[in-house]
Amino acid sequence: MHEQPPHPTTPLPSLRLTARQALAAVTDSFTELPHPAPAGPSTATAPPPPDGPLGWHGYDASRERARARTGEEESVLTALATIGGTEAVVLSFEFGFLGGSLGQRTGDRLEAAYTEARERRLPLVSLIATGGSRMQEGMRALSQLQRVARQSALNRAAGLPQIAVLRDPTTGGGWATLGAGADVILALPGAQIGFAGSRVRPPDDDPHAYSAEGQFAAGQVDAVVPADTLRATLRRWLHLLGRAQGPPTEPPRPAPVPAALGTAELPDTGWDAVVRARDAQRPRAEAYLRAYFDDWEEIGGDRCGGRDPGMRCGFGHRDGRTIAFAAQCGTATRPAGFRTATRLIRLADRLGIPVLTLVDTPGAANDTDAERAGAGAAIADTFTALATARVPVTSLLIGEGGSGGALALAAPNRLWATPDSYFSVIAPELAAAILKRTPSETRHTADQLHIRPQDLLNLGIIQAITTPGPGVG
Q: Tens of pLDDT along 397-453?
């Protein structure tokens, strides 16, 4: 993708920058938002109780030391900022202020920032570094997570994107709300990430599971981004999502159908179609994405503990507008792949962005691990996401169309096919086996299944067969 180096006069957003340094590292400029009046039982009608709502001895003194040490009044700064020419509301945590913990006043600031983003219809970016909820405020502090969750849900319903950057550490309720609840989650290398902080997790647990890299491997983080490219990465994400229109009152224009990149000749037989689609030299998803988009960014992982490298999902620019994509890469699609595609489709639908799917799989993975991971439920959810999407979905069959695992990514009544593809209710070899036919009868079985692109057109399964050249508008 097209990267721009960070501004030479600003520090890199390393793990231990202060809140203001982190803001300066990723923004072109920012203006701090006004601090809201304290909410809750202690308002202007009465002074706040000494040592907080619990009367925790020494709490006032701890806050005063934190103020003197950091120069901040609270553990989070909120600002109206510009990143790569796109306006956004940015939250930046100050870990030096009581470990970046969330208390009542932190919640006041966060709620006001989310509200500001909704009123201005701006994306919200969180630069997180927090140890969780503030012990000295007890359940009053923990209840701030409910406030944050509600505000995040309101912004989500308004069709406004939320991007989280996980610094070190991001643990406890900050991870479980601001972090894991974001639409796109980026993490700095080596950052400690997890619901359990280092002092409360089992002593013999694998520390890798609580790292940025471990969370990425588990499908919980979209990308681990080096500090020196974070600014450019945020710019690209905001360029892609920052102008999202929200839930559409009228559907946006559909994504154009990509031009075919392989042969223009149609197969003579069903087995010819199978051989072409399985040819290792046939253009795959990577080639189609490069030919279709000017640039793009990808999400990764299903947020349920899994990743499937055979499913690529994200958002790209084409002819000045953003289009979402979910692309199968020719391998058997695993449950994590279907869940990632479902996540992508629903996010695009919420943001009012049209979707392109590239269909190419021999079928859904059907091994023991796939069944244990909920293959059936994952496929069903993808079918539902496509069936209920309010934005238009354009689908192109670019290779193998293996049964329900391929159909789950095919938009109803908006499917095109390339000449080097096929779609079948079942693989011809498996059909022959079920019918107790000999392997020599597989070719005849392929013809009986009517799986060639021209057969699919005659059956009304596809809209048209694409050819090399300009895409279909």
A: 999 999 999 999 999 999 999 999 999 999 998 999 999 899 889 999 999 999 999
Place of tokens 């692309």: 327
Residue positions counted in the chain: 473
**Can you tell me the distance from the alpha carbon of 345 to that of 368, in angstroms, rounded to the nearest whole number?**
27
Tokens 């069944």 correspond to 371
- pLDDT (tens digit per residue) in 123-161: 999 999 999 999 999 999 999 999 999 999 999 999 999
- Give the H/E segment covering residue 154: helix 144-157
Amino acid sitting at position 55? G
Beta-sheet pairing, 162-171 with 193-194: parallel
> How far is residue 390's CA from residue 387's CA, in Å, rounded to a whole number?
9
Using only the alpha carbons of the chain, give its radius of gyration.
25
The answer to whether 312 and 289 are in contact (CB under 8 A) is yes
Tell me, letter by letter, the H, E, C secondary structure of 251-271: CCCCCCECCCCCCCCCCCCHH
Q: How much is the average pLDDT of 193-210?
A: 79
Preceding amide of 169 cis, omega within 30 = yes
Please state, in angstroms and rounded to a whole number, the distance separating the CA atoms of residues 143 and 427: 54
